[in-house]
Write a structure and sequence with these properties.
About 35% of the residues lie in helices and about 20% in strands. By secondary structure, the chain is of the alpha/beta class. It has 3 domains: about 160 residues, 3-Layer(aba) Sandwich (Rossmann fold), CATH 3.40.50.300; about 80 residues, 3-Layer(aba) Sandwich (Rossmann fold); about 120 residues, 3-Layer(aba) Sandwich (Rossmann fold). The two termini are about 40 Å apart. About 5% of the residues have low confidence.
Length: about 400
């Protein structure tokens, strides 16, 4: 199972029973259920373990037929969820299927989100043949006719859901499994600075350690200040992984025969569009005075004077290029600037806190318009003159 849970979006008109579906699947009254339409406002998220699927996050969205100015804002938030989910459930009731549902189906297909259709409240109105026929004019998605108030229907819904879950959810995605062999020595170089959480390592470092252990490797963890001491022991690791911030220091000490990459670059391959990152990184050399750079941080965190995204990368970019640049920062999955064409380069963090679907969907918003994208680690490798070495381990080359 992926380190990130499956994200399932629940969509439909007001009062079709979306919240009841959430409550059925979780076995708890998480979402408010009311006969009054419009009870759900902002998307509601709930973590749940679904038997046969695993950990998942269910996202209950506002009705797509919400009214007024506030309703329009709710609908917009619901639509934004589509690009962030791995699969979706479209809930209808009372044999209502029309333009609202057709538009949602179109969005699912544009975003390549697999989905199923649940006709709910069949204890009141069963799905009619004409409704099935109308739906089939627009989609071949699975259709089930149930009532979320009947507990026995839970298994029917979960079985239908399992059929649409992307195969990638069941694939054990690995950071480095294809790069190492059992009993290999994997060296992890992890600085401890003001950005390091108190008493623990950051998530990418934790996940890299676990991935190496899962592949029966001998894992050695040192700070960069002890790297020379480790090398003096005469041990040659099969792979060295460093924090991107100390690329230059590490590359200068680590013998060329030892493959080297970074935590951020590993995550770029695991979750991002690696080919697009490799291609976009070259744009750093082409930046001009006044160019606007968008830096995307996929998590929210307290910034410091050592902050990699807000302090170090901007400073290094201006120093490396000799240009005066402008920077915009977006944290988490917050709304992106409307005019994306103004950016000369997008720099995305490793994305350890978001899913692959969320990250790739976000990058597509730029790559579809040929706006260059790169990743923290790849940008830092480029500016430290070690890009080729840091990507060589993946069989990567770049043609300039």
């Amino acid at each position: 199972m992926s380190s990130n849970p499956l994200h399932i979006g629940i969509f439909g008109r007001r009062n079709t029973g979306k919240s009841s579906l959430i409550n059925m699947l979780t076995g708890q009254e998480i979402s408010i259920v009311s006969h009054l339409p419009g009870t759900t406002t902002d998307p509601v998220r709930k973590s749940v373990e679904i038997f046969g699927i695993g950990p998942a996050i269910l996202i209950d969205t506002a009705g797509i037929d919400d009214l007024g100015e506030i309703g329009s804002k709710r609908i917009k938030k619901s639509q934004e969820v589509i690009s962030r989910v791995d699969c979706a459930i479209l809930v209808i009731a009372g044999n209502q299927f029309g333009d609202y549902e057709v538009r949602l189906i179109h969005q699912f297909e544009v975003e390549e989100v697999p989905y199923l259709i649940i006709h709910n409240k069949n204890d009141i109105h069963k799905i009619a043949s004409i409704t099935r026929t109308t739906i089939r004019e627009h989609t071949h998605a699975g259709i089930i006719d149930v009532s979320t108030f009947h507990p026995a229907n839970k298994d029917i819904i979960i079985s239908a859901l399992k059929r649409i879950v992307p195969e990638t959810v069941y694939q054990q995605r690995s950071l480095m499994g294809d790069l190492i062999q059992p009993k290999d020595i994997v060296l992890l170089i992890t600085p401890v600075d003001s950005e390091a959480p108190e008493g623990r390592l950051i998530l990418p470092q934790n996940q890299a350690i676990r991935d190496a252990l899962d592949h029966d490797c001998i894992t050695v963890v040192v700070k960069q200040t002890e790297l020379a001491d480790f090398l003096a022991l005469g041990i040659t690791p099969a792979l060295a992984i460093t924090d991107s911030q100390v690329f230059g220091y590490v590359a200068a000490i680590l013998p060329e025969n030892i493959p080297l990459t970074s935590f951020s670059i590993l995550f770029a391959r695991l979750k991002g569009d690696f080919a697009a990152y490799r291609k976009g990184t070259r744009q750093i050399d082409l930046l001009k005075d006044g160019d606007h750079i968008l830096i995307l941080e996929s998590c929210t965190h307290q910034t410091s004077c050592d902050d990699i995204g807000r302090v170090k990368i901007p400073g290094l970019l201006e120093k490396f290029t000799g240009k005066k640049l402008r920077f915009t920062f977006v944290t988490g999955l917050s709304e992106l600037p409307e005019d994306k064409s103004e950016f000369a380069l997008i720099i995305q963090c490793g994305g350890c806190m978001v899913t692959r679907k969320q990250l790739t969907s976000r990058m597509k918003l730029f790559t579809k318009d040929d706006i260059p994208v790169t990743n923290y680690g790849m940008a830092l490798a480029w500016m430290n003159g070690v890009f080729e070495r840091a990507t060589k381990v993946f069989g990567s080359t770049i043609t300039l």
